[in-house]
Amino acid sequence: MVMEHGGTERRARAGTITKVFDGAGGARDVGAESFAAFRAAPGSQAFAWLHLMRDHPDAAERLAEIGLDEFVVGALTAEETRPRCSVHGDGVLLNLRGVNPHPAAEPGDMISIRLWVEAQRIVGVSVRAQSALEDMLAAMDRGHAPRSPGEFVANLALRLADRAEPEVTDLTDMIDDIEETLLAEEDAAPRAELAQARRVAILLRRYLVPQKDALLALELEELSWLGERDRAHLREAADRVVRLGEELDAIRDRAQIVHEQLIDQRAESLNRRMLLLTVVAAIFLPLSLLTGLLGMNVGGIPGAQDPRGFVAVCVLLVALGCAVFLVFRKTGMFR
Q1: 335 part of a folded domain
Q2: What is the CATH number of the domain that holds 106?
Q3: pLDDT, position 28
Q4: Where would one find the signal peptide in this protein (predicted)?
């Protein structure tokens, strides 16, 4: 029975997902007891998937009940994780990260998805609801389920990249707008937005680059249940993450260049103002010297008794000021 996408979202956010895949593109919901007892028939490509929320009260106990050892349980329920790929026996511990789909989430907030992948079962743990899982569930309900554990991992990684791509596109548009503003109006560049774009790009890159390394490491592992088709899908997922990482590098570099342009423009503007003040001070320096000499309270000041002395001094000051101005202009001080 095909469920509506809204039901898929509610199911993903409820915290526990349990499915069995037939290896041919089909999937069906089962109970937790059926997952614990699941054993694929000889020659069958079927496998099962259990997904829990880490904050579930008995998450660790449920993971131990299905036969996972302490090392795997500890890795799946750890407080902090970074993208990585670790082989343990014939299984793989894989940590991935995806953007937070909540509208009020901080830009650059990444949600971890921890996976334990074996030949016939996948156990996943996440901290919060992840939109990439909702996308996968919706595809499964339409009859497009993964046909192997390796394809499951590749599909999840691709959907995580798909959800991260709009964030990267928004950052690129933000840098474009800032550059356009900087070219149009010298002092109007939004410095706060520029700093925010740089911060978000750094945060996203911090997790996307190790995620690429984790996917490439999984592709190279010699695991019996990982086929050539699975490796090709993993390479495709890794290439998508590489492209996002390169775009984030470009955003970071462009933001740095814009920041340097802002600093240069502020320095140039300050230099122009300082030059103007210097010229004004240089023009008035000889005038101040002359008026200071004439203003000394001693005898012998020229024109002190002449009623036309003040007018003569004013004319002299104007002439001297114009002469200094012309000298500065001829020497290029105003350029």
Answers
A1: no
A2: 3.30.460.20
A3: 87
A4: none
Q: Are residues 292 and 157 in the same domain?
A: no
**Residue 154 and residue 288 in one domain:** no
Q: Which domain holds residue 276?
A: 272-330
Residue with the larger pLDDT of the pair 322 and 14: 322
* Reduced 3-state DSSP string for the chain: CCCCHHHHHHHHHHCCEEEEECCCCCEEECCHHHHHCCCCCCCCCCEEEEEEECCCCCHHHHHHHCCCCHHHHHHHCCCCCCCEEEEECCEEEEEEEEECCCCCCCCCCEEEEEEEECCCEEEEEECCCCHHHHHHHHHHHCCCCCCCHHHHHHHHHHHHHHHHHHHHHHHHHHHHHHHHHHHHCCCCCCHHHHHHHHHHHHHHHHHHHHHHHHHHHHHHCCCCCCCHHHHHHHHHHHHHHHHHHHHHHHHHHHHHHHHHHHHHHHHHHHHHHHHHHHHHHHHHHHHHHHHHHHCCCCCCCCCCCCCCHHHHHHHHHHHHHHHHHHHHHHCCCCC
CATH of the domain at 283: 1.20.58
Cα torsion for 211, 216, 219, 223, to the nearest 10°? -70
Tell me the C-alpha distance between 240 and 229, whole Å.
17
Q: Report how many domains make up the chain.
A: 2
* Mean pLDDT, range 259-281, rounded to an integer: 81
Q: Does some domain include residue 186?
A: yes
Q: Which of 263, 284, 303 is the last residue of a domain?
A: 263
Owner of token pair 């899982």: 133
